[in-house]
Amino acid sequence: MGRTACSCAMSGAEVFPRAAVAKHKYAPQTAGELALEAGQDVTLLDRINADWLLVSAGDRQGRVPAAYIIDPAAPSQVR
Prior knowledge:
Shape: globular
Structural class: mainly beta
Distance between the termini: 25 Å
Mean pLDDT: 86
Strand order of the largest sheet: 4-3-2-1-5
Order of helices and strands: HEEEEE
């Protein structure tokens, strides 16, 4: 019995893990970052800060810029 995206968005609390999609291709700049392809399915594991997310894709895990992720649970991205 998890929260829905709607109740999460209204309460302001983030629920992890949750599904998302890479918006753009991303090439890692430092160790610990994860390469992404545009349209790639990822799992959001945690929010590091306002600009970075911890994600997994398959058996890989790493940091990616939040701006490169389409998060259906984010109020500004729900259409």
